[in-house]
């Protein structure tokens, strides 16, 4: 005899079988080694991303403060020098002397 026709009747018990199948399938998927490996890989990626973001923030802070302390005063001084040179050139042209062709070195 075959067991083909010996299944349960469809009716009130069919929903219980579906829930049981879904629960077993869900349990089988959550307990599989592939799922465990995927979870470990996701946790490792999150850990590395967090560390990278933290170190990138530290590097950005270091670069920003270094720029403010060293480069901004240099830019301000270069701008003052250029304004001084333009003022000197303007005064020379007002006094009648010809401006130099190239700036002195």
From TrEMBL:
Protein name: Mitochondrial import receptor subunit TOM9-2-like
Membrane topology note: Single-pass membrane protein
Organism (species): Durio zibethinus (Durian)
GO cellular component: mitochondrial outer membrane
Keyword match Nucleotide-binding: no
Keyword flag Mitochondrion: yes
Gene designation per UniProt: LOC111280047
InterPro entries for this protein: Tom22 (IPR005683), Tom22_pln (IPR017411)
Keywords: Membrane, Mitochondrion, Mitochondrion outer membrane, Protein transport, Receptor, Translocation, Transmembrane, Transmembrane helix, Transport
Transmembrane feature ranges: 59-76
